[in-house]
């Protein structure tokens, strides 16, 4: 590959690649959030209790946490593009089935299945980025890709309430199913072509033979790395803190700070905007700096703790400080994720990027599930929202310490090497 391709300017094909994986991962958030949006109406129609309705949210994340590691391993075996398209197709099939669900257990099983089929999506998307972007563009590409996580909540709230009011919750599910169908067609054509840094399906030995290993041996080899474990610990604490404070923010603003629901919504809109912008900025800084990615990730993550504290100590009735600290917390909660997502594939062997990112994502999902539970336990024990936030504000500092032990892998040399020099 010539030097012109490695210049800082993106090609038209790279824009299509980002658009394809951005849309594919966006629909994963839309489909997982769809039940939460329609739940108030659907549980009345289906005669569910609130606890039964909430269990549909929980069972999705259990299925997702179970499948992220095997999904990453399958992506390494069959290809990133194939696994991403399979995940999108699975989302479409399950959402269509949910339109016709009857009874609690059928829906419960379908939500679990939705989590399972969504598992490979992040590993596959991050793998595709490594195939199409060199090391000087990759973090920026990851930052742009990450914005779909913030955008998904916006999209579902634009159409779902209106469709549900006029046509019912089943129609809303049907409309939601059109998103993965559209994403499937667009991603299929957008991801066509031969990438400049193609995925490695095996490592060749000196005699030219491809090294063969069992799945367990490959997994042990992939995670037998200090940096991988440090990123897993980072994900457990930092991602847990991120989604813990995010999921509780509206409740805290209304119940503890005594602001209105509308004010809380405005504050969280600011949170969403600052998080979106910060993820792109973080990627650009990392790509254009001589400092290592783990150093920048540590700096961005260190911002998170003081923003949680500032948010928790917001004076009652002070609207300016509420908006300021909510916006600042959006930066703290999301800015680091661009770099940590990037590192999860850069510390991996070139033929096991899906496996490693899936392994790290399993810890991310565990943190996302456990942190809100921990917040609830602290609240029950202390009766104080502020105490709960102050305790969880320590989590990002633990993640910062873990990040200091991360080192970018020599495998990243493939990111800057000519495609012809990389053996398939």
UniProtKB/TrEMBL annotation:
<keyword id="KW-0472">Membrane</keyword>
<feature type="transmembrane region" description="Helical">
    <location>
        <begin position="359"/>
        <end position="380"/>
    </location>
</feature>
<feature type="transmembrane region" description="Helical">
    <location>
        <begin position="228"/>
        <end position="245"/>
    </location>
</feature>
<feature type="transmembrane region" description="Helical">
    <location>
        <begin position="55"/>
        <end position="75"/>
    </location>
</feature>
<feature type="transmembrane region" description="Helical">
    <location>
        <begin position="320"/>
        <end position="339"/>
    </location>
</feature>
<protein>
    <submittedName>
        <fullName>MFS transporter</fullName>
    </submittedName>
</protein>
<dbReference type="InterPro" id="IPR000849">
    <property type="entry name" value="Sugar_P_transporter"/>
</dbReference>
<dbReference type="GO" id="GO:0005886">
    <property type="term" value="C:plasma membrane"/>
</dbReference>
<feature type="transmembrane region" description="Helical">
    <location>
        <begin position="140"/>
        <end position="159"/>
    </location>
</feature>
<dbReference type="InterPro" id="IPR036259">
    <property type="entry name" value="MFS_trans_sf"/>
</dbReference>
<keyword id="KW-1133">Transmembrane helix</keyword>
<keyword id="KW-0813">Transport</keyword>
<dbReference type="GO" id="GO:0061513">
    <property type="term" value="F:glucose 6-phosphate:phosphate antiporter activity"/>
</dbReference>
<feature type="transmembrane region" description="Helical">
    <location>
        <begin position="295"/>
        <end position="314"/>
    </location>
</feature>
<feature type="domain" description="Major facilitator superfamily (MFS) profile">
    <location>
        <begin position="17"/>
        <end position="411"/>
    </location>
</feature>
<feature type="transmembrane region" description="Helical">
    <location>
        <begin position="257"/>
        <end position="283"/>
    </location>
</feature>
<feature type="transmembrane region" description="Helical">
    <location>
        <begin position="84"/>
        <end position="106"/>
    </location>
</feature>
<feature type="transmembrane region" description="Helical">
    <location>
        <begin position="15"/>
        <end position="35"/>
    </location>
</feature>
<dbReference type="GO" id="GO:0035435">
    <property type="term" value="P:phosphate ion transmembrane transport"/>
</dbReference>
<feature type="transmembrane region" description="Helical">
    <location>
        <begin position="171"/>
        <end position="191"/>
    </location>
</feature>
<feature type="transmembrane region" description="Helical">
    <location>
        <begin position="386"/>
        <end position="406"/>
    </location>
</feature>
<dbReference type="InterPro" id="IPR020846">
    <property type="entry name" value="MFS_dom"/>
</dbReference>
<keyword id="KW-0812">Transmembrane</keyword>
<dbReference type="Pfam" id="PF07690">
    <property type="entry name" value="MFS_1"/>
</dbReference>
<feature type="transmembrane region" description="Helical">
    <location>
        <begin position="112"/>
        <end position="133"/>
    </location>
</feature>
<dbReference type="InterPro" id="IPR011701">
    <property type="entry name" value="MFS"/>
</dbReference>
<dbReference type="InterPro" id="IPR051337">
    <property type="entry name" value="OPA_Antiporter"/>
</dbReference>
